[in-house]
Specification:
This protein is of the alpha/beta class. It has a domain at 439-535: GMP Synthetase, Chain A, domain 3, CATH 3.30.300. It contains 16 helices and 25 strands. Helix 2 packs across helix 3 (75-86). It is globular and about 70 Å long. It starts with 11 loop residues before the first helix and ends in a 9-residue tail after the last helix. The protein binds adenosine monophosphate. The site of adenosine monophosphate (AMP) has 21 residues, from strand 14, strand 19 and strand 20.
């Protein structure tokens, strides 16, 4: 027997309509690409999204057409999110930090009909344009006064001209909730990037789940700043979740340095911010150097890479800001797990709390996860056994765009994340490695992440990566590649001695290489593949 409730479809357009009706006067504040601060309301954003939908219809954009964006976090980008998806087309956010060859591959693969670009990315678009045949025009996200005087782009349109002449009467179509709404490509550290095609249903469900109390805990009282770019897994869904609850939204534009972020946080009263550890490192350095405080910030979501436990401690103890460590991937929309304490942890000593908070957390309701051995057999949830992390849920990818690579699923329903993890008896998951980064020593696995966390807890270390280096006897042994904090000293012996008593002796790295900086991907993750190449011929003293 079927239930007898309304089959109202879950649509992205319903989110902005709700924000307009119930939180219409709430502000969206953006650091504008042209300079200065831009502010308007949800009501204005909805009106302009409808004007944009009318403009795109006139340009011939049809349902399911892909419309690309190369843009910072700003109000026009938000309008594009809603206009494109709302009209039944697909908003394809492109990460401009990828290599140009990857970018033209992605634009061609997606067959983007138009690409909307911030002024910053005009030179990049000029470089890409000759290779992107599907693109009918590049729409520059600015007004007439700021349009570039000369550009080699053949087909250019001005965003404000386009929407300025349109009516704000537009009726969002009643789509099937399984219609594709947006498209993100994986960062593709190996092979070509693959497209993950989100649906209206997956996006709306993800936004409902992400605002829950033990998740982002967002409400109409919050002032939310996604520092994570809108070109990185839809800024972890914040452009949807903030509107779903009517929180004030603060969009930092391209100014991701500690000083700019802190200034905006303080001037706009930001209570909640989300970003990758590298960004928070810059912010913490800034506040430490200047002696500044966070007067309104209460929670930060840190994800995308392991949040070093020292960062959690600094935020909590020195600045009274809670850190919520989250794990996810492009393929999971991205929220998979979030780490918050349970009632029974309330009276634990701070050290114990920190141990839990350093884990990636338990599954967001809607996500199911397990760890398996190399034969696919489920491993115990004892916090010790580690194996391949598999997930499923309504906002997890089923297959890649255009069927690339065949079905990624195991047993027809589990998505193999490529991460290696433990799960403890309380359900807290902890990532020990990317499967390709695990160090295999004498047939046993060593967690590079655990070794990195220890190195980064050393007061003189700014950043560290641990990779496996070939060893004649053990197959691989760990090497720490570390960056020192400016002006501070630490020797190889001191750093290796720092591991004593913190891990099993045989996990202790065999050597340390100090470098000026570490390579990162376009989304701020350590690029270990590059490090492994750089250190391919490295001779360990133990070899
Ligand atoms: P992406 O699809 O580019 O967002 O990358 C997803 C990958 O980032 C995951 O599979 C993990 O390897 C890594 N990742 C994301 N969040 C975390 C986290 N909190 N801790 C450790 N690794 C993470």
């Amino acid at each position: 027997m079927l239930g007898q409730m309304m089959g109202t479809q879950l649509l992205v357009s319903s989110i902005i309509r709700h924000a307009d009706r119930y939180h219409g006067d709430v502000e969206i504040v953006s650091r504008a690409v042209e300079g200065g601060i831009h502010r308007y309301t949800y009501c204005d954003a909805h009106r302009r999204a409808k004007q944009l939908a009318n403009a795109l219809t006139k340009l011939g954009v049809k349902p399911s057409d892909r419309v690309g964006t190369m843009a910072w976090n700003g109000y026009r980008h938000l309008e594009i999110y809603y206009a494109v998806s709302g009209m039944g087309a697909i908003c394809h956010t492109i990460n401009p930090r990828l290599f140009p060859e990857q970018l033209s591959y992605i634009i061609n693969h997606a067959e983007d009909s138009y690409v909307m670009i911030d002024l910053t990315f005009v030179p990049l678009a000029e470089q890409l344009a000759p290779h992107c045949k599907s693109v009918k025009a590049w729409i520059i996200m600015t007004d007439r006064a700021h349009m570039p005087v000369a550009t080699t782009l053949d087909h250019v349109l001005c965003y404000e001209d386009l929407i300025g002449r349109e009516s704000d009467i537009y009726y969002w179509p009643q789509l099937d909730e399984n219609t594709a709404s947006s498209l993100c490509y994986t960062s593709g550290t190996t092979g070509n990037p693959k497209g993950v095609l989100y649906s209206h249903r997956s996006t709306v469900l993800h936004s409902y789940a992400s605002v829950m109390p033990d998740c982002f805990a967002l409400s109409a009282q919050d002032v939310v700043m996604p520092v994570v770019p809108m070109f990185h897994v839809n800024a972890w869904g914040i452009p949807y979740s903030a509107l779903a609850v009517g929180a004030k939204l603060v969009l930092p534009g391209g100014g991701m340095d500690g000083a700019s972020l802190h200034e905006l946080m303080e001037s706009e009263g930001v209570t909640f911010a989300a970003g990758v550890p590298t960004i928070w490192l810059g912010l913490l350095n800034h506040v430490k150097e200047t002696g500044a405080k966070f007067n309104t910030l209460r929670r930060t979501i840190v994800g995308g890479s392991t949040c070093p436990p020292t960062m959690i401690r600094t935020f909590m103890e020195d600045y009274k800001v809670s850190v919520i460590h989250a794990w996810g991937m492009t393929e999971t929309s991205p929220l998979g797990t979030v780490c918050t304490l349970k009632a029974k942890h309330k009276n634990l000593p701070i050290e114990e709390k920190l141990k839990i908070l350093s884990k990636q957390g338990f599954a967001v309701n809607g996500i199911t996860m397990k760890i398996v051995d190399k034969n696919g057999k489920e491993l115990p949830r004892d916090g010790k056994a580690f194996g391949d992390l598999m997930v499923m849920g309504p906002w997890v990818v089923n297959s890649y765009y255009k069927g690339e690579g065949g079905s990624p699923l195991r047993e027809g329903r589990w998505f193999p994340t490529g991460d290696v993890a433990t799960i403890d008896a309380d359900g807290y998951m902890q990532i020990t490695d990317r499967s390709k980064d695990v160090i295999k020593s004498g047939g046993e696995w060593i967690s590079s992440i655990e070794l990195e966390n220890i190195a980064m807890a050393h007061p003189a270390i700014a950043e560290a990566a641990v990779i496996g280096v070939a060893h004649p006897k053990w197959d691989e042994r760990p090497l720490v590649v570390a960056v020192k904090k400016p002006g501070l000293k630490v020797s190889r012996e001191e750093l290796l001695g720092f591991y004593e008593g913190k891990i099993a002796r045989w996990w202790t790295p065999d050597d340390v290489a100090f470098v000026e900086s570490l390579p990162h991907t376009g989304t701020g993750k350590l690029l270990k593949m590059k490090l492994r190449e750089d250190f391919a011929d490295y001779k360990l003293p133990t070899a």
